[in-house]
Design brief:
Helix content: 25-40%
Shape: globular
Radius of gyration: 23 Å
Bound molecules: flavin-adenine dinucleotide
Strand order of the largest sheet: 5-4-15-16-17-14-18
Number of helices: 16
């Protein structure tokens, strides 16, 4: 008898889970039903991804040209951070997704960062070293000529609603059952396991395993099973956002997200083929919703209010256990770390994969539940630390918000050690290995962040240096030769869109 898996919620998390489960377990091992309430709707933001979404489509066997045009999607090679560390003299830096060719320059970059920490003024900006940084600067796509011998990692930008619709059709065409109903009651058996869901019309839906994808409402995991939510409010102050679309750029489509620091938070700018998605993520302790909307409109040039703004509340933190009884939580119902590095869908995918692995390895029992919970919990914490570092290291003076973030002492032990090793001029790569952080944000990401901020320890006798320690020895040359293999992003999108 196949396992009856019932997913509640049809946002991106629900449909991602349905697709992964159907693809790998249907029909022999599982029957998947997804129930969603048409009158509640989805959150409708979350339009930037990491390269794990590329892996997601590879697992599903779906090619870019099959889904990207349907979702107005563009390629994403990384994130540019503008205005986070003005005092260091660096207006902007990039956190590119790293790829195979970066293996050749990784050592140069890390060595230069170390040299710079020792007091010699050499180049350490990530854009000078990583191929995706160069592609972003040139508005190039990450797809190379066929003769190019290396794999390039990339993510996507997409319309969240259209992606949901695409994934729904795909899952249903592959065997998932789709029901539209609001769940008003959750029934449990003697052991506390969930047995049935009751819809508004009184219909019952029975299952063996339930997946809570009900967004911030967390109807099954938090409301029914009472799993505790651990807030990150002490480390991450942002708790609200206002989103506002603007027309697509006339001068080509960028291949990166921009995260621009504003007075009391930051603004994302995500390029789609037909529009920009923009949003101001802020702390309501420091700025009101109206003020945030005005500042966002002014920043994106929409003060006459042509486009409608949407205000959202965010609950930042994670639940104590992501798998409790016979229920797994995914997406916003399991927790949320603010969207600065667009990590939410990455965490959805990682959670599903770890779960499927743990469940199958234990012969479809919960024998590995504790280990799974430990791993997912750890993932959330380490992603949080990487985001916290962006705030802790800021050098903005324009508001109490930025000062409060800088003075924030609520840092995890792991983050303290990373900063300690960096400022003491120690071997950060070794520390990251020691802490086993490579599967979260690894050596290169940390070096990009710290050098991108110009967060260097003060030295008594700084040497001028040539500014070019390794770059001079061929890195720049290598990168520009690589970049010749890549198309203009706009042209590549036209190629993907043309059948
Ligand atoms: C401001 C902001 C920006 C973000 N940016 C990014 C980003 O750039 N990248 C990224 O990866 N993530 C981002 N995220 C997170 C991302 O939006 C979510 O992780 C993603 O959309 C998945 O949401 P979800 O499916 O968990 O929840 P939702 O989209 O909220 O879906 C919830 C579903 O549950 C259903 N439901 C709820 N209650 C019931 C009920 N009682 N009965 C039946 N159905 C019910 C609803 O109908 C809906 O279908 C962002 C989030 C915010 C708030």
């Amino acid at each position: 008898m196949p396992l009856r898996i019932v997913i509640v919620g049809g946002g991106t998390a629900g449909w991602m889970a349905a697709n992964l489960l159907v693809r790998q377990w249907h029909p022999e091992r599982a029957h998947v039903t997804l129930v969603e309430s048409p009158d509640i709707g989805i959150i409708g933001v979350g339009e930037g991804s990491t390269p794990t979404l590329k892996r997601f489509f590879e697992i599903l066997g779906v090619e870019d040209h099959e889904w990207m045009p349907r979702c107005n999607a563009t390629y994403k090679v990384g994130i540019r951070f503008d205005g986070w560390s003005p005092a260091s003299g660096i207006d902007s830096y990039r956190h590119p997704f790293t790829s195979q060719p970066d293996v050749f320059v990784q050592r140069a970059f890390v060595t230069n960062c170390r040299t710079r920490r020792l007091g010699l003024d050499v180049r350490t900006q990530p854009d000078d070293f990583f191929l995706n940084g160069v592609l972003a600067k040139n508005r190039q796509s990450p797809l190379a000529a066929e003769s190019f011998p290396f794999e390039i990692d990339y993510g996507y930008h997409f319309d969240a609603r259209l992606l949901g619709q695409y994934l729904a059709e795909l899952a249903v065409s592959r065997g998932a059952e789709h029901r539209q109903a609001r769940i008003v009651e959750v029934r449990q058996g003697e052991t506390g396991d969930i047995t049935n869901l009751v819809t508004e019309s009184g219909e019952e839906i029975a299952g063996d395993l339930f997946i809570d994808c009900t967004g911030f409402a967390s109807v099954l995991m938090q409301k029914t099973l009472g799993v505790h939510f651990q807030t990150y409010k002490d480390n991450l102050f942002n708790d609200a956002a206002v989103a506002l679309p603007t027309p697509a750029a006339d001068d080509g489509v960028p291949s990166e997200t921009v995260s621009h620091a504003l007075s009391n938070g930051w603004c994302w700018q995500i390029p789609l083929t037909n529009r920009f998605g923009n949003g101001y993520v802020y702390s309501s302790d420091f700025i009101s919703a109206d003020e945030a909307e005005t500042e966002l409109r002014s920043f994106v040039g929409d003060l006459d209010g042509k486009n409608e703004a949407r205000h959202l509340k965010m609950r930042v933190g994670q639940i104590e256990r992501h798998w409790e009884k016979n229920c797994l939580a995914l997406g916003l119902s399991q927790g949320f770390i603010e969207p600065l590095e667009a990590t939410a869908l990455l965490l959805v995918q990682v959670t599903v994969e770890l779960f499927m692995d743990a469940y199958a390895k234990a012969d479809f029992t919960d024998a590995h539940r504790d280990e799974f919970n430990r791993k997912v919990h750890e993932r959330f914490e380490r992603v949080r630390d990487y985001i916290v570092a962006h705030y802790k290291l800021n050098t903005r003076e324009d508001s109490d918000y930025w000062k409060a973030n800088r003075e924030n002492l609520n840092l995890s032990e792991s983050l303290r050690r990373i900063l300690d090793v960096w400022y003491r001029r120690g071997d950060l790569s070794q520390e990251i290995q020691r802490q086993k952080l490579e599967s979260h944000f690894g050596t290169l990401s940390w070096h990009c962040l710290l050098s991108g901020y110009g967060a260097y320890p003060a030295t008594a006798d700084e040497q001028p240096g040539s500014g070019d320690l390794y770059v001079e020895q061929g890195v720049a040359d290598f990168l520009s030769r690589c970049a010749m293999n890549f198309n203009d992003h706009r042209l590549e999108l036209e190629r993907v869109t043309t059948p």
